[in-house]
């Protein structure tokens, strides 16, 4: 036997017996699964013996998972909005009168600005006069240059405006609006599904100068929009049969993307869609999957349970927070974070279920979670992640 071949074979057998085999996981990037040659007849110099192939990854694996640094707790309050990475506006709920057999409980509500770094809390003056009772909701364009503003005089009708954030100039949008459904389809246009008292109503493409154009949608299977998202030139929604579809302002016939869909959440960069499935066709659990915008599933399911809700993307689209409830305590329960870089799902170790939407700060380093509390009505936990 050739001496060089003998030494090479000895090294290979030593590595195998020690359990040292690099790149054997076929799921790792850069590795290849080698065929099993056991029992196959060899030829030439191999003499029918198995060969050891060492495959080394071309690049190191991405850092996986998340780490919690600390958790802030705010009693009796929910998050209204983030003002900066460490400042937020909260609403504090106080019970003024306990419920009785004949009367409902009475509550009061007060707003505060909270600084998480200093702990300072400043009261925000309540609206008075003609503006009392109005609800104002604003949505910034992706580039932050414009804002679509809805001022709800009551729960049935809103006044809509486009605001130039640099100049403060406002353009009124002449449409009747019964719903809050809508979103920026690009930097220059806001799509509003205005709704109606009778049917799904009109869909409008609103330009930043306040002009609007009707968008046609030829789909008899949608009566109202319960799931609706916009971005990167496309509009996504679910129809009455739980099918996720997409269309564009110039394409009236929609494209079918997925079936048995309960909820959808488009990432801020408009590249991925988090989809929770409905429990149909004998399926025992709802599932959470990630799709691309063409309707293709990306990887394996990231969550499953009796109820999946409150999907919330971090502003940079690198993480997805979601809540799971499963009656079986051995299943998934609580808040989880999906890391899009590593593909790993990590539990936060908080088994409670949120009663308000999950809320990220602008940089995605903090997550707000509001839950029920027997003594304090509600409690908001703000999780700081290690950078």
UniProtKB/TrEMBL annotation:
<feature type="signal peptide">
    <location>
        <begin position="1"/>
        <end position="23"/>
    </location>
</feature>
<dbReference type="InterPro" id="IPR011659">
    <property type="entry name" value="WD40"/>
</dbReference>
<keyword id="KW-0732">Signal</keyword>
<dbReference type="InterPro" id="IPR011042">
    <property type="entry name" value="6-blade_b-propeller_TolB-like"/>
</dbReference>
<feature type="region of interest" description="Disordered">
    <location>
        <begin position="29"/>
        <end position="48"/>
    </location>
</feature>
<protein>
    <submittedName>
        <fullName>WD40 repeat protein</fullName>
    </submittedName>
</protein>
<dbReference type="Pfam" id="PF07676">
    <property type="entry name" value="PD40"/>
</dbReference>
């Amino acid at each position: 036997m050739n001496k060089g071949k003998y030494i090479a074979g000895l090294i290979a057998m030593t590595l195998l017996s020690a359990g040292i085999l690099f790149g054997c996981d076929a799921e790792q990037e850069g590795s290849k699964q080698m065929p099993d040659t056991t029992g196959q007849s060899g030829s030439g110099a191999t003499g029918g013996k198995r060969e050891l192939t060492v495959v080394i990854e071309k690049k190191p694996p991405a850092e996986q998972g998340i780490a919690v640094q600390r958790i802030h707790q705010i009693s009796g309050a929910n998050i209204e909005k983030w003002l900066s990475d460490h400042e937020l506006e909260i609403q504090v709920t106080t019970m003024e009168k306990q419920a009785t057999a004949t009367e409902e409980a009475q509550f009061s509500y007060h707003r505060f600005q909270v600084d998480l770094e200093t702990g300072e809390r400043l009261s925000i003056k309540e609206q008075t006069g003609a503006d009392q009772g109005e609800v104002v909701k604003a949505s910034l364009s992706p580039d932050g240059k414009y804002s679509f503003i809805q001022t709800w005089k009551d729960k049935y009708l809103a006044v809509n405006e486009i605001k130039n954030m640099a100049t403060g100039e406002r353009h009124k949008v002449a449409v009747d609006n019964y719903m809050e459904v809508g979103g920026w389809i690009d930097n220059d246009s806001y799509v509003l599904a205005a709704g109606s008292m009778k049917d799904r109503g009109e869909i409008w493409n609103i330009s930043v100068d306040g002009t609007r154009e009707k968008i046609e949608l030829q789909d008899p299977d949608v009566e109202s929009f319960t799931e609706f998202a916009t971005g990167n030139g496309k509009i996504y929604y679910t129809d009455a049969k739980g099918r996720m579809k997409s269309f564009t302002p110039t394409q009236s016939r929609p494209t079918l993307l997925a079936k048995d869909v309960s909820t959808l959440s488009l990432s801020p960069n408009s590249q991925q869609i988090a989809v929770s499935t409905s429990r149909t066709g004998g399926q025992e659990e709802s599932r959470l999957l990630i799709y691309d915008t063409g309707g293709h599933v990306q990887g394996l399911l990231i969550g499953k349970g009796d109820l999946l809700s409150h999907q919330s993307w971090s502003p940079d689209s690198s993480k997805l927070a979601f809540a799971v409830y499963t009656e079986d305590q051995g299943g998934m329960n609580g808040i989880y974070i999906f890391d899009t870089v590593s593909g790993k799902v990590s539990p936060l170790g908080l088994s409670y279920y949120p009663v308000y939407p999950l809320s990220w700060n602008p940089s995605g380093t903090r997550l707000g979670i509001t839950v029920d509390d027997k003594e304090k009505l509600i409690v908001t936990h703000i999780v700081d992640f290690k950078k």
